[in-house]
Each structure stands twice: as C-alpha cells, then as structure tokens.
Specification:
By secondary structure, this protein is mostly helical. 70% of the residues lie in helices and 0% in strands.
Length: 159
C-alpha cells in the first residue's frame, strides 16, 4: 500500500482558501498543527508560517475584511448582532472591521428577528410562560431585548 504524499503547508492553505474565506488568525490556527507535523520533512517553523500568511495577504488571497463580510452575509438572516459579533471576534477579526459591519447588521436585525420568530413560532405567545420561551429563543440567537420586544409587540403582545 502506497503512503499518501505529504501536502505542503502552502498547498494545504490554498485548499482551505479554495473552499471559503478565512481570517488570518483562523487560517493560522488551522495550519499550526501541520507545522509541527511537517518539521521533520521540511524546516517549517511558525515564523515561516507567518511569512506564508503575509505573502497570501499581499497577493490578496487572504483577507480579514472578506472573511468578515462573508460571515455577516451568511449569518445575518438567522442570527442577531450580538451573536454575529461574538463569532467575528472568535475568528480573530479586528475590532475596526467588526465596528464597520455593525451599522449594516443593526439595520437588518429587526427584519431578521421577525423572520426567525415567524419561522419558529408564527403565533403570539398566549401566556407568560410561552412569552418567556420565545424571548429566550430569540435571545439565544443573539438578538437584543429591544428587538425581541419589538417583534413580540408587533405579534400582538406587550413588551
């Protein structure tokens, strides 16, 4: 049985980027375990990994701004501003890029909350227990209380 050939760090990074956008920190985290694994074969170090990532940024293949934009567009119809902001921070996106995405997120948040609520529940809560359940659900999706109560008010209850 033939052994599968080792994939270079550069080729591995390109394979990841071919599938979707990654932030620099996220791609570095995915490649770091392979740096240690490859050390026996080619002298690759974390410093060389950073140089590789710098090269990818210079060529325009790796962009935190594109990664942030992709995540916002993918998640904004199902999640609130708080949840999306949290995910952006987890992926290592810079605060200034997050701040730039906030106005767009806030503008579409009420519409997204209504859509999520309509899909999950569709009818106004009939008692406090049901109302609490709907509030918790929307809160778990990252919507703020002001938006949640606007949705419930529009559905026929008071906030």
């Amino acid at each position: 049985m033939r052994k599968k050939p080792e994939v270079s760090l550069r080729a591995r990074a390109l394979q990841y980027l071919a599938r979707r956008e990654y932030s620099r920190a996220e791609l570095r985290g995915k490649l770091l375990p392979h740096v240690q694994a490859d050390e026996d074969f080619e002298q690759v170090s974390p410093v060389n990994l950073d140089a590789l990532l710098d090269d990818f940024v210079a060529r325009g293949w790796l962009s935190d701004a594109r990664a942030a934009t992709q995540l916002v567009h993918a998640k904004r119809s199902r999640f609130g501003t708080q949840r999306i902001t949290h995910e952006l921070r987890q992926k290592g996106i810079a605060e200034e890029l997050i701040s730039a995405a906030l106005p767009e997120l806030k503008a579409s948040e009420l519409e997204a909350a209504r859509s999520v609520w309509q899909t999950k529940f569709g009818i106004a809560p009939h008692d406090e227990k049901e109302k609490a359940k709907q509030v918790r659900f929307l809160q778990s999706r990252g919507f703020g209380f002001d938006v949640i109560f606007q949705v419930l008010r529009a559905a026929g209850t008071e906030g």
